[in-house]
Design a protein that fits this description.
This protein is an alpha/beta fold. It has helices spanning about 45-60, 80-95, 110-115, 135-140, 165-180, 200-210, 215, 230-235, 245-255, 265-280; strands spanning about 10, 15-20, 25-30, 65, 100-105, 120-125, 145, 190-195, 225, 260-265. It has one domain (about 20-280): TIM Barrel. The strands form two sheets. Strands 8-7-6-5-4-3-10-9 form an eight-stranded parallel sheet. The protein has a two-stranded antiparallel ribbon with strand order 1-2. Helix 3 (about 110-115) links the parallel strand 5 (about 100-105) and strand 6 (about 120-125). Helix 1 crosses helix 2 and helix 3 runs parallel beside helix 4. It starts with 9 loop residues before the first strand and ends in a 29-residue tail after the last helix.
Length: about 300
Amino acid sequence: MFLPDLKYPLHSFSGRRIDFSQRVAVMAVVNRTPDSFYDAGSTFGLDEAVAASLRAVEAGADWVDIGGVPFSPGPALSWREEAERVVPVIARVRERSDAIISVDTFLPEVAQAAIDAGADVINDTTGLSQPGMAQVVAAAGVHVVLTHSLARPRTAYPRPHYDDVVGQVRDYLAAKVQRALDAGIEGSKIIIDPGHDLNKNTRHTLDVTGNFSPIAALGYPALAAVSNKDFIGETLDLPKQERMVGSMVAATMCIMGGARIIRMHNIPEAVQTVRLIEAAAGWREPVYQVHNMSDVNPPAHPQPARDRS
């Protein structure tokens, strides 16, 4: 298991602190969109989005990522309409939970409205591409997720080519980190994400998944957004609703390569995956131990002592 040398292991959010040298955070995906790739709009309604967020926290998620616009190509949405989708969810979840809340947006106006409603993190899948986003994050002192992607927001990027996908993604993220630091964002507020499937084909994403350690070695907590994605479906020939096992395997591979946050749809299964890895790493104790512990678990039917004469 690769243990990255984190520049800032301890991260403080509004209601929680996480030591990423000894923890893996589970981020739940909640999309308030009518056309999200996985849930097909089942959490588009406000009440449904809030309920899904709170269920995820109850199931063990540390973090809820709330989005109002898919990454996939499509028509632009005004910042006001996007904010109308995400801000009420953030406000209502914040009233009822101390979980970490991020907003998945690339627009600075939406980011500011989300921060005002209680968001802890701006999850920018375009890597601070929009003017003013870095300044909003820096001024508010919130966290930011810097993600590798190449296309302009909501546009296609046909046939992406990389000579060395892992190296090029790593270099891109290093440059984005420096841009964030230059803009006044504190290093202790930066998270990086190689962008599984974002402007990458399945082979590219598999290479990133199997060689995650150079990304994690940048020294900032690395996020792996692998849940139910197309690279799993194309590798295993499975539809979206049958990719849960593949998602857990991909998440495990990334964690073993140094990822410290996994962005997932299937929260109970993701929490179990993370807890087992953390226990194997020595970061947490088992909930109980009775197997081969005869002093606390005597045999139900004691056997007579063997004659050793």
